[in-house]
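Exam review. A common question shows you a sequence with its structure tokens and asks you to describe the fold in words. Practice with the pair below. Do the first one on your own.
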Amino acid sequence: MEKIPLGLPLDWHSDGTPIFQRGDFIRDPRPLPPNSGVIYDNIVLPEHRSLHSNSGFNMIVLPPTKEDKLNETWLGQSYPDIKRGYKFGRIIQALDVTCRAIIQRWEKPGYVTDFVYFTLQPFEYVIVPPVYETILLNASTDTPARFFEIHAKDEKRNTETILELDGTGYLAYQKGKLLPNKNYDELPIPRITPGLFEFKFLKRRSLYTNYIGFAKLFDFIDPPNDGFFVGGV
């Protein structure tokens, strides 16, 4: 795995397990569906936690792919909070050249209206608009893929639909191959694109560095500013 400055006191085992070099921000991982990846929730140093009371900063690790179909994990769809009535988006940053991502939007289960496949380099971003589903993938058979994520702390994550349909509208395989999922009724032509080098104030540097250095600029997370996401895909 490439050694890149992340803005956090982290080192890594060869399997992608993080070594937390400060005991006051250690987090235990929890599995993500479909149980191939893990997420370390809210890995924010104690001295920075007061900067962001409404958003969470996470790290996601995907083990190497062992079959032709890429190893994937589902973050789900950000959808409206029933009581508060608005929608959330999220920011993803790749930390490895093996990182891939899919976002898709559907009007109803099985009917996808937009499908985007991202091939990512370290420090590149995926800006996920509200109501899009987010899927992260690892294109390597040898090394883990690591991602950072910012999201609203009280967002609702829906992974039930993608579970019922056994994956995304197109399924990702080695060598960039995308094949239609037979459980879907209607699919658009997929868009294949690199990640974003820069987007608004998000420069090509560690997302954590942005997160603590430009705290007020992340206020769009809660309450959300849908305008932030325009052009993100």
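Now try the second one, then compare your answer with the model answer below.
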Amino acid sequence: MFADKVQLFDASDGDVNNISPFDGEQLPDFAFEAYGVRVHLSADNDELLEIGIRTAKKALVGRLKEIECSGRDADHRFSVHRDSNRGYYFRDEGEPTTPTPDETDFCRLLNTMIRIQVAAKAKRYVFIHSGVVAVNGRAIVLPGDSYAGKTRLVAELIRRGAVYFSDEYAVLDEYGKVHPFERNLSMRRDGGHIPYEVEPEDLGAVRGKIPVPAGMLVLTKYEPGSNWKPEQISLGQAILEMVPKAIGVRNNPEFYLTVLNTTFKSATILKSLRSEAAETAERILEAFYKLPVSKDSGCIF
């Protein structure tokens, strides 16, 4: 979302470039683990460290635990700084981003980069750019790139009673379960690029708390004036379309393919263009409710 805004200082910018990625060990620091990834966070002072910690907790919806870990032993390192003339910036593995005087913009970018790096290096989890809701104990997974309209579609689904899981990531484990990543929805006004947050509760929804199996995978793309005409496609076709949306897939492609196969092998897979999110949400739920229901669990398969 904001990763494309990251710019690095030129070496001629001076002192800001002359810090080793391990120099954070002499600064106030905090280490945490999330999804098996050990992250070391340091800052120029306690105030900036607190900003970094708050941002990390928000980025990972609280799913991190504090650990003892040096910068040298971490899987990834961030450090938070403030230049008296140019504003806030952070280092990602020692590389500095362009300063901004706006703390909100700074935190938004740091939030994004923490999420991306944890998702890319996660141990035993696969992160897919996707919206996710759950109905009757089964997940409806809606892969999509940023600016593809998946948040609006998720919003319309939860307005209609679906449980909110995520508007950003489908988090899949090796056993084929879909985990909540229930951050606030990141909405955009028509034609706008600056997001604003909406709590799912404001849309009458509840947040998912436990992992669930996948019931339906919907591959859809917004195209004005198009009609919802879903076709069922094979798991192999679906995986080919999802791989580009998998974060860090090059790190362990065999594991990613195994997890995708395990997660969606029993799911109904639909593909269609779509127009307005509200109408599409109605059609998706209609299709979902037509699926067979387990007499034992009450869950839709």
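Model answer, second protein: DSSP finds six helices and 16 strands in the chain. The helical segments are 46-59, 103-121, 150-159, 235-242, 253-264, 277-289. Full marks require stating both points clearly.
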